[in-house]
Write a structure and sequence with these properties.
- One of its GO terms (molecular function) is hydrolase activity.
- Keywords: ATP-binding, DNA damage, DNA repair, DNA-binding, Hydrolase, Metal-binding, Nucleotide-binding, Stress response.
- The protein has 16 helices and 25 strands.
- With 567 residues, it is an alpha/beta fold.
- Among the domains are: 216 residues, P-loop containing nucleotide triphosphate hydrolases (Rossmann fold); 162 residues, Ribosomal Protein S5, domain 2 (2-Layer Sandwich).
- The strands form six sheets. Strands 10-9-11-12-8-13-14-15-16 form a nine-stranded mixed sheet. It has a seven-stranded mixed sheet with strand order 19-20-18-17-21-24-25. Strands 6-5-7 form a three-stranded antiparallel sheet, with no helix packed on it.
Length: 567
């Protein structure tokens, strides 16, 4: 090779023995350049690697690289051993993804905010190898190997053929079971994946342990059925101690403490349980998935593995999920998209009552609400939920000044709650509200000033909802106005009176949904008077309400004249 044919020189390694033997011996190399490798000449279409020479022992391996011209006139492409090494390293590189904790959107690059929901600070980094895509399915493959068959699309008319819808769900018996079944939509659906979330100490583990005991009794089957309760947070002895305190027994209720999903599925295989309970999803993990238990990728893959197990075996799986400081279930938002049902258990810190509500339900309504009470023997159903929202009744005494009863609905349940108001003279437009929307309270107070003629300008007004309930629907407007009038006029409201209605800006009373069901509930609880809008009286007709008088009013002035008139 002549010097004029050489296009460029490239430095690779500082070893003299790596010099290309095809270089002319007369070529002088500077002292600081120890190794050069020629590149292909412009006239040549390709330049093959020279025959390798025997390498001296104790020296570095020989590495060559060439450039070849594209025969179609394209750009020159690198070839040779160096390029092969670089390509092999690139194949083994892990894939890094950034997942939004709110909406579950995945992106290959960090942008500072989620490009799907525009949330800031929600992107979480995790990496997954090529083998993780099927890890969740492989976790249950050994269990399902004998059940996999020829699966074909089915007609819609053939799917439910021969299935009794009344006996399809797994029922939960007793007052406690009926309360939970109402929230689930009528019972536990076979093959469903249910996620239960709530604050620490609210009673999630107690709830699922009681559900496990009910199903293990097998009332609908006529014989006990196996149920497995798996905990990654407690030992078997600790769970057994809690069961003894709650007087829970049964020969078919099995306890297991473990955190490996594959191990859990292998251990329960001989039992063929009717229900599997995992406490909690943040403590279990899968082999082959990057990250520790509770990480984004682990939570997602473990949930997918349990979903695959539930759908293919028709065994329902109940999961417990931790919550963050904001009250949302910890982990990626996609977790709530994977499962079939999401239940939240709520409760005040200093109250024994618990509210179980559904925020997602593929098999029923999300408007249902279960009311439970925590006791020494576990969770008990509250037969009359209005008792927890009403204070002691002091019949027609001064204590009732500023108190009014509102009738609200949560889902299909009707509740009677107590509104408290206090008007203190000497302060100018000072207001404090608890459990009521501040903007709604300001509107009602302004309507009382303008339309009802109350001189509230020089009074401090305090509003409160008993038992820490948050009033969100407009059906409580009339009770709020009545409580303010009672405190301002220092006139007690009779304890047998309830209020239903929405207040408009003109002082008029408006209808609210499900008026007939609200009035029936008030009548069954023994109330004597119910104040409603005049339009509601016309829609209710002449039907009787067990001796209760229904009084219709068109505006706030008529309400004041009807309730606060002197006898």
């Amino acid at each position: 090779m002549q010097g004029s044919d050489m296009r460029a020189l490239r430095i690779f390694y500082p070893y003299k023995h790596l010099l290309n033997p095809s270089l002319p011996k007369s070529l002088s190399i500077p002292r600081h350049v120890h190794s050069v490798i020629p590149l292909a000449a412009e006239q040549s279409s390709t330049l093959s690697d020279p025959e390798p020479e025997p390498e001296p022992t104790g020296t570095a391996p020989r590495v060559w690289s060439t450039y070849s011209n594209d025969r179609n006139g394209g750009q020159k492409k690198p070839t040779g051993v160096l390029v092969d090494i670089a390509r092999s390293k690139k194949k083994g590189k892990e894939k890094v993804s950034w997942v939004c904790a709110d909406c579950g959107h995945s992106d290959g690059q960090w942008w500072g905010l989620c490009r799907q929901c525009n949330a800031v600070g929600t992107l979480k980094r995790f990496s997954d190898g090529e083998s993780e895509a099927s890890v969740s399915e492989a976790a249950s493959r050994s269990w399902l190997s004998q059940q996999t068959g020829d699966v074909r699309p089915l007609r819609l008319t053939d799917v439910n053929r021969g299935i009794n819808q009344l006996k399809w769900r797994i029922p939960l018996y007793g007052p406690f079971g009926e309360e939970v079944s109402r929230v689930l939509g009528g019972g536990l659906v076979p093959g469903s994946l249910v996620l239960v979330g709530g604050d620490p100490g609210v009673g999630k583990s107690t709830l699922l342990l009681q559900i496990a005991a009910l199903i293990a009794e097998g009332h609908d089957l006529g014989r006990p059925a196996p149920v497995v309760y798996v905990s990654g947070e407690e030992s078997v002895e600790q769970i057994g101690n809690r069961a003894d305190r709650m007087t829970i027994g049964g020969d078919e209720l099995f306890l297991y403490s473990g955190t490996n999903v594959e191990d859990i599925l292998n251990k329960i295989q001989p039992l063929s349980p009717r229900v599997l309970i995992v406490d909690s999803i943040q403590t279990v993990y899968l082999n082959g998935v990057a990250g520790s238990a509770g990480g984004i990728s682990q939570v997602k893959e473990c949930t997918s593995a349990l979903l695959c197990f539930a759908k293919k075996t028709n065994i329902p799986v109940l999961l417990i999920g931790h919550v963050t400081k904001s009250g949302e279930i910890a982990g990626p938002r996609v977790l709530e998209h994977i499962v079939d049902v999401v239940l939240y258990m709520e409760g005040e810190r200093y109250s024994s009552h618990r509210l179980l509500r559904s925020v997602k339900n593929r098999f029923g309504s999300t408007d249902e609400l279960g009311v439970l009470e925590m006791s020494q023997s576990g969770l008990q159903a509250v037969l009359n939920p209005s008792e927890m929202f009403l204070s002691e009744q002091y019949s027609d005494s001064d204590f009732l000044a500023g108190l009014a009863v509102a009738v609200i609905m949560d889902g299909s349940r009707t509740f009677l709650i107590e509104i408290q108001a206090l008007c203190a003279s000497g302060s100018i437009d000072s207001r404090q509200v608890n459990g009521i929307q501040a903007s709604r309270a300001d509107m009602i107070i302004s309507v009382l000033k303008k339309q009802a003629g109350l001189k509230l300008q020089e009074h401090a007004i305090f509003l409160n909802v008993v038992s820490g309930v948050k009033l969100t629907e407009t059906a409580g407007d009339l009770a709020i106005a009545a409580a303010i009038c009672s405190s301002f006029l220092e006139f007690p409201i009779p304890n047998s009176t309830a209020f239903i209605g929405e207040v408009g800006l003109g002082g008029e009373l408006r209808m609210v949904p499900r008026m007939e069901k609200r009035v029936n509930t008030v009548a069954k609880l023994g109330y004597k008077i119910c104040i409603v809008p005049q339009s509601a009286v016309e829609s209710l007709g002449s039907q009787g309400f067990e001796g209760m008088e229904v009084i219709g009013c068109r505006n706030l002035k008529e309400v004041i004249n009807s309730v606060f008139r002197t006898h």
